[in-house]
Every structure is written in structure tokens, then in C-alpha cells.
């Protein structure tokens, strides 16, 4: 399916446990991204921090079992592995209570991290990890250290852990930005651009931050992609939603790895949309999905 399996990916940010009532599942958007990219057979490294506790050990072992390079995950003696309380509404949409501080708020640079970044062709990062100065400083240092890697900014607005000034700086560093529809409208408004038209907002952000590639997800209504000066649309795939946790992460991972493997943008967007829908139809952020299963799902929807 992919023409080039030698692309090295690095994902930076939070690794944690999502807690649904009495049930705990491994998560964190950057880790979800890394796991999905690794599931396609690409080399992927995770840069983060865990506590010296049982939750941290479980995350490390799970990451290794799923073919992630974990040498960039620091073990903190001072802070515990991250925990997020997830509440789902009747439609499966999630709200989050994110424990602060957590180990991933204190990611620092060492020789292992520097080596991983030097080898990276694509680098995923988000906004939540910037809620604390330590991890924020490390992120900006990494973003400035390798001009050759393709920088993918996954916007994840989690109140109260963001402000427009930091978001603008993060966008300025990106080659690709992924928003949902509410996020791009809020951020564009914060930059004094008011319009309900999503394509106008995409064009504004692209020009304002000098970012050539932008994607906006629209939930069940699909997505819009700006890629190399052209707009692409996908109407999405209908599924019965169990929960939306991780659906956007798998969508973005699948979209990027297809695009940088020189896949046709329409085909890349179609495949990513199918993955996102399938994840939303399962419980948890990281269900096992084989490429054959995804293609069979896409074919079934086309026939119906």
C-alpha cells in the first residue's frame, strides 16, 4: 500500500491513561498517532515522560509490543504517569478532566532525544503538551533543531490549557496543521478573522502562519484538506459511534503517512476518513485495524 517504508516518524507529547468509569485505556493523542503510524510498518519513536510507577511500566511495555521506539520516553521520579478522566455523552463525544501536573509536563532533552529528532522525516506535535513551560521549551527547541523534517501540528484545544499566543507560535512552526471545525473557527476568531466559511478560515490560517497544508475534520460530515494549493473534500463514512476518543488521531496519522508516501490526496483523505470512522465505531483510542479490514469497509460502504 505504501511506496516508502523508510520514512522515520517521531511523535512528541503526552502519554497517559484514559479512564472511562472503572476502565482504563492507554491513550494521549501523540501516542495514539504513533501507534497508528507504527501499525502500517513505519519506524516510529515516541518522545514523552512517564512516572516511575505501574502505569508507566504498562505504557512502556505496550509501546514496545506495538513496535514503538521508547528510548525517548523519560522516567520521572517526581511526577506520576498521566491520567485523564473521560466523560462520554449520549452521542459518544468526549469531555476530559486532565490531571496536572503529570510526568509528561516535564519532558526534557537528552542525547537520545536529540538523536531521534536528527533522524526524523516527519514530526507530530500537539498543543496540550505546551501547558507547562518545561515541555513547551523542549518542544520549541526540537522544532528549531531539524529544518528537514515535515512538522505536523495536531491542534487539541483542552480548556484551560491553551492561549492564542502559543497556538500562533506552534502554527508558525508547522508544515501541516490539523483542526476540527470548532477549533479553526475559535483560533481564526482569536486572530481577528471572522467568517463561518471553513475554506475562508483555512485560507486565512494558511496565509497568516505561512502553512501550506491544512486539514479540518467535520465529525460525521467528513473533512476538508488544503494540499499543495488545492482543496479536497470527503463526506465521511457513516458508522454507529461508540466513542470518538482517538478517531481524529488515527485519521491524522493515516492521512499524513499516505500523503508523504505520495498517495493521491483524494485517496489519502478517503482512507483516513474510513480509519477515523472505524475507530469511532470501537471502544477506546487504539483498536487493532488491518488494512484489508479498512479496504473491505470502504468497499462495503460504496456498494450500499
Write up this protein:
This protein is α/β, with parallel strands linked by helices. 38% of the residues lie in helices and 24% in strands. The protein is built from ten helices and 13 strands. It starts with 8 loop residues before the first strand and ends with a helix.
Task: Reconstruct the topology from this structure.
Layout: E1 9-12, E2 16-20, E3 23-27, H1 29-39, E4 44-51, H2 54-65, E5 68-76, E6 82-88, E7 94-98, H3 111-118, E8 122-126, H4 133-143, E9 150-154, H5 164-172, E10 176-180, H6 181-190, H7 198-209, E11 213-217, E12 223-227, E13 230-234, H8 247-259, H9 265-280, H10 291-303
Parallel strand pairs: 1-4, 1-8, 2-6, 4-5, 8-9, 9-10, 10-11
Antiparallel strand pairs: 2-3, 6-7, 11-12, 12-13
Helix pairs in contact: 1-8, 6-7, 8-9, 9-10
Amino acid at each position: 500500500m505504501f511506496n516508502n517504508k523508510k520514512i522515520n516518524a517521531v511523535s512528541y507529547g503526552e502519554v497517559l491513561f484514559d479512564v472511562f468509569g472503572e476502565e482504563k485505556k492507554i491513550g494521549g493523542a501523540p501516542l495514539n498517532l504513533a501507534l497508528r503510524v507504527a501499525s502500517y510498518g513505519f519506524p516510529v519513536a515516541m518522545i514523552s515522560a512517564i512516572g516511575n510507577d505501574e502505569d508507566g511500566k504498562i505504557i512502556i511495555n505496550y509501546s514496545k509490543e506495538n513496535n514503538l521506539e521508547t528510548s525517548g520516553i523519560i522516567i520521572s521520579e517526581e511526577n506520576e504517569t498521566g491520567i485523564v478522566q473521560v466523560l462520554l455523552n449520549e452521542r459518544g463525544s468526549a469531555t476530559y478532566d486532565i490531571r496536572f501536573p503529570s510526568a509528561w509536563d516535564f519532558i526534557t532533552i537528552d542525547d537520545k532525544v536529540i538523536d531521534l529528532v536528527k533522524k526524523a522525516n516527519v514530526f507530530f506535535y500537539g498543543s496540550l503538551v505546551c501547558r507547562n513551560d518545561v515541555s513547551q521549551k523542549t518542544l520549541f527547541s526540537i522544532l528549531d533543531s531539524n529544518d528537514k523534517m515535515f512538522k505536523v501540528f495536531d491542534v487539541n484545544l483542552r480548556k484551560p490549557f491553551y492561549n492564542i499566543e502559543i497556538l500562533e507560535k506552534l502554527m508558525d512552526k508547522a508544515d501541516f496543521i490539523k483542526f476540527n471545525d470548532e477549533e479553526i473557527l475559535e483560533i481564526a476568531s482569536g486572530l481577528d478573522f471572522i467568517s463561518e466559511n471553513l475554506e475562508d478560515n483555512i485560507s486565512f490560517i494558511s496565509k497568516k502562519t505561512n502553512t501550506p497544508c491544512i486539514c479540518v475534520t467535520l465529525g460525521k460530515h467528513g473533512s476538508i484538506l488544503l494540499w499543495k494549493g488545492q482543496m479536497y473534500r470527503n463526506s465521511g463514512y457513516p458508522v454507529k459511534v461508540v466513542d470518538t476518543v482517538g478517531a481524529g488521531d488515527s485519521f491524522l496519522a493515516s492521512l499524513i503517512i499516505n500523503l508523504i508516501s505520495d498517495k493521491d490526496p483524494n485517496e489519502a483523505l478517503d482512507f483516513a476518513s474510513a480509519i477515523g470512522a472505524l475507530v469511532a465505531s470501537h471502544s477506546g483510542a487504539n483498536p487493532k485495524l488491518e488494512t484489508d479490514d479498512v479496504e473491505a469497509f470502504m468497499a462495503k460502504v460504496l456498494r450500499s
